[in-house]
Structures are given as structure tokens and as C-alpha cells.
Write a structure and sequence with these properties.
Blueprint lengths: L8 E4 L6 H7 L4 E4 L4 H15 L27 H7 L4 E4 L2 H10 L4 E4 L17 E5 L3 H21 L5 E5 L11 E5 L4 H7 L13 H6 L1
Parallel strand pairs: 1-2, 2-3, 3-4, 5-6, 6-7
Length: about 220
């Protein structure tokens, strides 16, 4: 920072919040792009891992973790310390209105800015000749969504359309369900070709963050 002398700094995530002291000491205006609430994500992840601890990291049939209301618990919230760390930055960038409201309530000395996750609409259309696609990463929320898809959604769809399938690309989590209609592709060199022929994208995730952003990107 001393060598480069930036006009301003946009700092990503709260994990390295202590750098705010350096920015202040060096007189550099700093904003933090919070992206999501780290401690809330950690609490959701712990709720899920604790639930699956006795079953080797894979949910049982009919497990509560596969129900949409699994994370509906007032105790699952961000640690106040995270807001204290965020509040050390004069400007906080949020990607959702709900998180911006939380920042406004808890970081009164900072100015919040809403910068939602948006992309320009593409002018081209996919060919729709291929199966649906689901790009995922190696985290428990994606594994949870895969099991919901495999156990609750896909069987109903295949009753009406027996040939229906979904190509799953990316980092396939350990313990991923193996059922008819789920085709695990793994990493591909270029997702654009997959998107170009896919009929639609699936996002069976209702906990944590990330998958919705990946689908949009």
C-alpha cells in the first residue's frame, strides 16, 4: 500500500478485516465487498455437518436436512463480531437487499451500497437440444441440493418424462447420489459449450450461498 499509494481500496470478504487498520493508518479510503455473511454461512454449514455426522456425511432417506425449512431457525444468524469487523470500513458493498438491511442495522457508522449480482442478458439462445445442466462446487450445500434433486424432484419428473436427465459439471462431492437421470461429467474445459446446448439450468440449493451466483455467471 505504501509503494502503490492507491486512491482507494476495495477489500473482499471480512476474513482479513484487520487490514482496515492499515488502510486507516495510511489514510487510504476503503470499502469492503462483503459478498455474504461468513459467520452465517459457517453456522449453516455446521448445522448441516452436525446433522450428517452419524451417517458418514450422507443424509438418510427422508432426513430433515432435505426439507426446505431445515435452516429456518432464528438461532442461525451472523455473529455480531462480524458486523463489528465490517463496521471498521466506511463503505460496505452488499449483493442483496436483505443483507444490506442487516448491515444498516448493525453498522450504523458505515454507508451501505447495494451492488446486486446481475449480468447482461445474452443475445443468443441455447439450442435446447441437450439435457439440463447443473454446475456445482465441492461444498455440503451442493451435496444437500443434489440429494434433494435425486430423491424428491427427479423421480417425479422422470415419471412424466422417462428420458429426462441432468448433466452435473464441476467438482462432484463425495457421497453424491447415483440415480437414473443424473449424469456426472465433472470438470469440462469450457462451460459455454454445455450452456449452448442445454435445455435449462437447475439450482436445487436452499442453504448457503454460491450456487445461485455460479448459475448466473
Amino acid at each position: 500500500i505504501r509503494n502503490f499509494r492507491p486512491d482507494a481500496v476495495i477489500h473482499n470478504y471480512v476474513l482479513w478485516w484487520a487490514l482496515s487498520r492499515t488502510y486507516r493508518r495510511e489514510g487510504v479510503p476503503a470499502a469492503i465487498e462483503m459478498h455474504d455473511l461468513v459467520t452465517l454461512n459457517a453456522a449453516l454449514r455446521k448445522r448441516l455437518s452436525d446433522r450428517w455426522a452419524a451417517t458418514g456425511g450422507v443424509p438418510l432417506e427422508g432426513d430433515a436436512s432435505l426439507m426446505p425449512g431445515f435452516f429456518d431457525d432464528p438461532a442461525l444468524r451472523a455473529d455480531p463480531l462480524e458486523f463489528a469487523c465490517l463496521g471498521r470500513f466506511p463503505v460496505i458493498s452488499c449483493i442483496s437487499r436483505a443483507e444490506q438491511d442487516q448491515v444498516d442495522r448493525n453498522c450504523r457508522k458505515s454507508r451501505s451500497v447495494l451492488v446486486p449480482m446481475t449480468r447482461e442478458a445474452a443475445s443468443s439462445m441455447p439450442s435446447l437440444e441437450g439435457p439440463a445442466i447443473l454446475p456445482i462446487g465441492p461444498n455440503p450445500f451442493n451435496l444437500q441440493g443434489l440429494h434433494v434433486l435425486a430423491r424428491s424432484v427427479l423421480p417425479l419428473v422422470r415419471e412424466r418424462a422417462p428420458d429426462f436427465s441432468i448433466r452435473v459439471t464441476g467438482a462432484i462431492p463425495e457421497g453424491a447420489p447415483r440415480v437414473a437421470g443424473l449424469e456426472y461429467v465433472g470438470y469440462v474445459s469450457d462451460l459455454r459449450a454445455e450452456f449452448a446446448r442445454s435445455s435449462f439450468l437447475a439450482s436445487p440449493v436452499f442453504g448457503g450461498t454460491g450456487e445461485q451466483v455460479k448459475v448466473l455467471e
